[in-house]
């Protein structure tokens, strides 16, 4: 797990001068040595090949990869600034000299900082703020360093000053000395670190101002000694502790006296990192079961079995335990089959024989079949996961029978404050009417909403609904009465025709008496599932439980019993379901749940895990199979054969060392059972002793090596074997008597039946890596060129898009467009990682043609689908969806470039401003769309208003930008105009751009709305929309083409755009004058309707 962070550690690498940097707020900031000053007196020379060490060669390769157009500086002259000792001196083809931060290169920063020779004072500030490197005493300090020193001097007070002690008085002097001696700075930091780790807090919690104030209030020495730590310090200390203690973990695993079992499972973190948690389970030197999290590697490739196996094998190799690997507990994902095949091939065993299946995952599949029937996966995919249900989702749930109808009811109640408070008031009224003081003291409770299709959440929802059933029925009745009262005409006394009856009041959504009967049976049936999963969910370690009894949960020998117990319960419910009237869903789903459970029960013999664990439990032995499967002798023979094969092949001839055994008595079984499944396990214990030999009378502690320990033990018994509750301790006591069989028993009895322990790794890891980001192209010019070619291809396609859409239809046009999307994404990835530029150009040209189909298809749908008075709203939704990409893109750039302020990357505050404007644009276009639908104005008047809404601010912004360019001329900035570094200049330069960006969506929405006023036919809309998109893509082509050359004059795009705006004004005036006063009754040129799109006439 820590290795995942170590590869991304931006700290902990030393400078050539041997210094280690920390945060500027600490006392350990770098101080320059005299040798450094001597080096800094001259520019850093280009190192010769003979002088380069392997480490330096790697650094130089990374330097040139980040700065491909630069070489070592050819001019060596005096450079008095001390910062040159911490940077590389490079120059471009024009002779422009730059300082590149050596620490950034050593840390492999994806955006290493660099500054022009004339702006070297910025490098001074960067070294202090970015790496905590201070200037030498006799050299110029940056403004940030001076400010930090002033604050430190201002806050630096002694304990005597803070506590107002007069140290001239002996007594108060002793108090001051006692306070100083009583505070251990390192111990405080260690306690703080342990608290953050144990409570799973974010590392940044230690930097919270309020928390630091509490520390300083409790002991002023926290501030005086600068004992507070930063998130970077915590991360460094955690990595240091990991490296320090890793060898101890490796040693403990190697000293394990048996096999090491493994579980792994994958999940995706909130910021899209695909992680695999890996845990191991082993026995320590005292044969007690233990567990460890070995790692959380990231899977950067596709989730194929061989890719998963490679990550798992790397982690196992890092701990050196390949030769001790035992069995695996995994879920039922198909990729795990291939992963186990690869792992087994590498480690020398048959993967399928070593693969156990997570019992909890199997129960989940059976329970979902019981609840939802066929095609559960397809049903889940059709749900959006939103809190409020759409009509389509409401129908999907209703088709799932009583559970689906209850789900709809709960969602409607929970999303309505009115219904929620009404339900509470009904309960409160009922409680107050009771004569029982305990009932009157009750508090109303809410319905529990289920979590998509997770079966335990459905169980809790059903249980709460059954408790609230009388109140729910009153709720529906009162809500209907209130709705009728609100929607009854005062004149006629009848319900208004426009009134829409609430969904929970509709007859088809009502829970009938039979539905409630089914829900009650489901609650009881799923309760048995809950008992089984909770009993088998654990780590197999003996602990004191509630009620005072000592025992373990998560015992692998109870898996077979779990299957038998639930299959027996389902058999009973098959009969019961046939007697319930109108319970078709319930009858079918009970059978489906049984089939799913039986499918995996029949696959238990793919591995010897479960038969061996149960057969080597002293209370069950062969007797369990012979009693429970007496009608299936083939099953009994199969189970015995598998156990004997493992014994003969892996353990009978095993070399063992006899060791002394503790005399601790074996724990006996509990006398009280807490759920029906535990009672079933106790009931199926066979009665031992009949036909067996009592062991004490015939056996000694020493058994000949040729003795078959398995058969000997199976044919003998001891007093109390039938009551053994802890078989691990039982076999630990018998290691001397049965040295090989005890090893086999302990190996199998410590296998985990479920992989639930991995679920605790996910949330912590998701929080821990939430600030990691990715890289991209280092300059925008290649991307701009590729995008320009993309729009060129799109322009060519959209010119003929109308006829093509009319031919293929919208559905197939969207499918064609979707084919190109993965190609475009892969092109940027390949270009950024492998520098394959031609692939990016090729992919963008090809996807330009496929995107052309999408451009015309979406414009056709948006022009022809909405009704005339709703067109503005739907166009606003469409524009908002497109604008959401700007918000996401800005957020990604924020994560990538938040530490940059050079040209090509700006600081985090600038991106926050951009994201805020993009978010406001979404709200803006939604409101603007509603404005266009206002019927109080004619269409012509609305067209003029829309024209003014975007023309006036855009014209003002062009004037503003012209003034700014007049100020700057042809000068290029070494630093980006950044909100954090230069707030006023940033606002002056970027504000008009942000205004134009937001109003451009208003402009686009207006154009489509105006086009929609001329035609309601899909065929003509396809042609007019295609021509509009052709001109739009042509403009994008010109824009990106101009900006694809690094040496282009920045004023040229401005002149081009200004000229286009001037040409647009008369064209728009001419177009608006043609807009009809009312919605078009006929089409300009009617054509047949496109496949999959209804025109307005058909809708009405």
Automatic annotation (TrEMBL):
<dbReference type="InterPro" id="IPR012337">
    <property type="entry name" value="RNaseH-like_sf"/>
</dbReference>
<keyword id="KW-0863">Zinc-finger</keyword>
<dbReference type="InterPro" id="IPR011701">
    <property type="entry name" value="MFS"/>
</dbReference>
<feature type="transmembrane region" description="Helical">
    <location>
        <begin position="943"/>
        <end position="963"/>
    </location>
</feature>
<keyword id="KW-0539">Nucleus</keyword>
<dbReference type="GO" id="GO:0008270">
    <property type="term" value="F:zinc ion binding"/>
</dbReference>
<keyword id="KW-0325">Glycoprotein</keyword>
<keyword id="KW-0479">Metal-binding</keyword>
<feature type="transmembrane region" description="Helical">
    <location>
        <begin position="838"/>
        <end position="857"/>
    </location>
</feature>
<dbReference type="GO" id="GO:0046983">
    <property type="term" value="F:protein dimerization activity"/>
</dbReference>
<keyword id="KW-0812">Transmembrane</keyword>
<keyword id="KW-0862">Zinc</keyword>
<dbReference type="InterPro" id="IPR036259">
    <property type="entry name" value="MFS_trans_sf"/>
</dbReference>
<dbReference type="InterPro" id="IPR052035">
    <property type="entry name" value="ZnF_BED_domain_contain"/>
</dbReference>
<keyword id="KW-0472">Membrane</keyword>
<feature type="transmembrane region" description="Helical">
    <location>
        <begin position="908"/>
        <end position="931"/>
    </location>
</feature>
<protein>
    <recommendedName>
        <fullName>Major facilitator superfamily (MFS) profile domain-containing protein</fullName>
    </recommendedName>
</protein>
<dbReference type="GO" id="GO:0016020">
    <property type="term" value="C:membrane"/>
</dbReference>
<dbReference type="Pfam" id="PF07690">
    <property type="entry name" value="MFS_1"/>
</dbReference>
<dbReference type="GO" id="GO:0022857">
    <property type="term" value="F:transmembrane transporter activity"/>
</dbReference>
<dbReference type="GO" id="GO:0005634">
    <property type="term" value="C:nucleus"/>
</dbReference>
<feature type="transmembrane region" description="Helical">
    <location>
        <begin position="1054"/>
        <end position="1075"/>
    </location>
</feature>
<feature type="transmembrane region" description="Helical">
    <location>
        <begin position="810"/>
        <end position="831"/>
    </location>
</feature>
<feature type="region of interest" description="Disordered">
    <location>
        <begin position="1"/>
        <end position="29"/>
    </location>
</feature>
<keyword id="KW-1133">Transmembrane helix</keyword>
<feature type="compositionally biased region" description="Basic and acidic residues">
    <location>
        <begin position="1"/>
        <end position="16"/>
    </location>
</feature>
């Amino acid at each position: 797990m820590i290795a995942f962070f170590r590869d991304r550690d931006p700290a902990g690498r030393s400078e050539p001068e041997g210094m280690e940097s920390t945060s500027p707020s600490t006392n350990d900031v770098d101080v320059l040595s005299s040798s450094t000053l001597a080096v800094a007196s001259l520019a850093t020379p280009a190192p010769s090949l003979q002088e380069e060490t392997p480490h330096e060669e790697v650094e130089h390769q990374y330097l040139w990869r980040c700065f491909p157009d630069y070489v070592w500086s050819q001019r060596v002259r005096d450079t008095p600034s001390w910062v040159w000792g911490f940077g590389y001196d490079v120059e471009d083809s024009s002779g422009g000299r730059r300082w590149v931060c050596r620490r950034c290169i050593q840390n492999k920063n994806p955006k290493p900082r660099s500054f022009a020779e004339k702006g070297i004072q910025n490098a001074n500030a960067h070294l202090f703020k970015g790496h905590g490197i201070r200037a030498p005493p006799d050299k110029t300090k940056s403004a940030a360093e001076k400010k930090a020193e002033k604050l430190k001097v201002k806050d630096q007070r002694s304990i005597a000053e803070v506590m107002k002690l007069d140290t001239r008085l002996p007594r108060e002097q002793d108090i001051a000395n006692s306070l100083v001696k009583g505070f251990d700075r390192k111990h405080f930091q260690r306690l703080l670190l342990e608290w953050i780790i144990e409570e799973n807090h974010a590392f940044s919690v230690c930097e919270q101002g309020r928390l630091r104030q509490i520390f300083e209030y409790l002991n002023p020495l926290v501030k005086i000694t600068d004992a507070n730590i930063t998130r970077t310090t915590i991360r460094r200390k955690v990595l240091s502790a990991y490296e320090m203690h890793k060898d101890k973990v490796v040693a403990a695993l190697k000293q394990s006296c048996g096999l090491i079992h493994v579980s792994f499972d994958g999940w995706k973190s909130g910021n899209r990192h695909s992680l695999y948690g890996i845990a191991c389970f082993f026995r320590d030197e005292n044969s007690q079961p233990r567990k460890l999290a070995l790692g959380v590697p990231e899977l950067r490739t596709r989730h194929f079995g061989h890719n998963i196996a490679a990550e798992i094998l790397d982690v196992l190799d890092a701990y050196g335990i390949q030769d001790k690997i035992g069995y695996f507990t995994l879920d039922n994902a198909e990729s795990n089959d291939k992963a186990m095949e690869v792992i087994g091939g590498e480690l020398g065993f048959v993967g399928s024989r070593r693969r156990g299946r997570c019992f909890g995952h199997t129960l989940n599949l059976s329970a979902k079949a019981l609840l939802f029937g066929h095609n559960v996966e397809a049903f889940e995919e059709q749900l959006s996961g939103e809190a409020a249900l759409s009509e389509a989702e409401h129908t999907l749930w209703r088709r799932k029978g009583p559970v689906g109808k209850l789900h709809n009811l709960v969602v409607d109640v929970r999303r309505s404050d009115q219904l929620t408070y009404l339900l509470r008031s009904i309960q409160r009224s009922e409680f107050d009417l009771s004569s029982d003081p305990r009932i009157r003291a009750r508090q109303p409770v809410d319905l529990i909403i289920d979590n998509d299709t997770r079966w335990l959440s459905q169980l809790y929802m059903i249980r709460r609904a059954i408790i609230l059933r009388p109140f729910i029925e009153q709720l529906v009745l009162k809500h209907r009465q209130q709705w009728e009262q609100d929607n009854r005409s005062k004149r006629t006394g009848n319900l208004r025709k426009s009134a829409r009856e609430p969904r929970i009041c509709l007859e088809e959504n009502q829970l009938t008496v039979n539905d409630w009967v089914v829900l009650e049976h489901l609650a009881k049936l799923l309760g048995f599932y809950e008992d089984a999963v909770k009993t088998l969910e654990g780590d197999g370690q003996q602990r004191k439980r509630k009620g005072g009894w000592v025992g373990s949960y998560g015992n692998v020998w109870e898996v077979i019993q779990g299957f038998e117990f639930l299959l027996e319960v389902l058999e009973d419910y098959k009969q019961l379901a046939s007697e319930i009237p109108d319970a078709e869903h319930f009858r079918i789903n009970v059978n489906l749940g049984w089939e799913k459970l039986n499918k995996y029960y029949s696959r238990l013999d793919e591995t010897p895990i479960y038969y061996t664990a149960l057969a080597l439990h002293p209370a069950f032995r062969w007797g369990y199979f012979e009693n429970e499967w007496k009608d299936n002798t083939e099953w009994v023979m199969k189970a015995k054969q598998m156990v004997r094969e493992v014994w003969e092949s892996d353990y009978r001839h095993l070399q063992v060392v006899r060791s002394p055994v503790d005399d601790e008595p074996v724990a006996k079984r509990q006398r009280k059972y807490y759920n029906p499944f535990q009672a079933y396990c106790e009931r199926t214990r066979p009665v031992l002793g009949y036909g067996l030999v009592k062991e004490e009378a015939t056996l000694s502690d020493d058994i000949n090596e040729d003795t078959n320990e398995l058969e000997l033990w199976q044919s003998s018994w001891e007093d109390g074997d039938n009551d053994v509750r802890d078989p691990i301790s039982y076999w630990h006591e018998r290691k001397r008597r049965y040295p090989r069989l005890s090893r086999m028993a302990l190996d199998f009895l410590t296998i985990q039946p479920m992989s639930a322990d991995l679920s605790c790794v996910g949330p912590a890891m998701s929080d821990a890596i939430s600030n990691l980001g990715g890289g991209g192209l280092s300059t925008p010019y290649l991307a701009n060129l590729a995008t320009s070619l993309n729009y060129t291809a799109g322009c060519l396609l959209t010119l003929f898009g109308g006829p093509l859409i009319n031919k293929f239809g919208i559905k197939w046009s969207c499918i064609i467009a979707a084919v190109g999307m993965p190609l475009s994404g892969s092109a940027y990835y390949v270009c950024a990682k492998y520098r394959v530029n031609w692939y990016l150009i090729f992919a963008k040209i090809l996807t330009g043609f496929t995107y052309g189909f999408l451009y015309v298809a979406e414009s056709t749908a948006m022009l022809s689908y909405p009704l005339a008075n709703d067109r503005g709203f739907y166009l606003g939704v469409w524009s908002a969806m497109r604008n959401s990409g700007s918000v996401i893109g800005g957020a990604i750039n924020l994560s990538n470039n938040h530490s940059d302020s050079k040209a090509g990357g700006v600081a985090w505050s600038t991106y926050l401003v951009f994201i805020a404007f993009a978010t406001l644009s979404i709200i803006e276009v939604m409101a603007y769309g509603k404005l266009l639908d206002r019927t109080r104005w004619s269409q012509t008047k609305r067209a003029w208003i829309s024209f003014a809404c975007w023309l006036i601010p855009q014209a003002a912004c062009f004037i503003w930008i012209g003034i700014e360019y007049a100020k700057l001329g042809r000068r290029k900035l070494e630093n980006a105009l950044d909100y954090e570094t230069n707030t006023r200049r940033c606002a002056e330069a970027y504000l008009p751009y942000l205004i134009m960006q937001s109003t451009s969506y208003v402009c686009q929405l207006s154009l489509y709305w105006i086009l929609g006023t001329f035609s309601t036919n899909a065929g003509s809309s396809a042609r007019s929309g295609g021509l509009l998109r052709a001109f739009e893509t042509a403009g994008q082509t010109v824009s990106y083409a101009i900006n694809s050359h690094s040496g282009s004059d920045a004023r040229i795009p401005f002149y081009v755009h200004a000229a286009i705006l001037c040409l647009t004004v008369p064209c728009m005036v001419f177009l608006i004058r043609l807009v009809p006063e009312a919605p078009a009754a006929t089409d300009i040129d009617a054509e047949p309707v496109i496949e999959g799109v209804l025109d307005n006439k058909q809708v009405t």
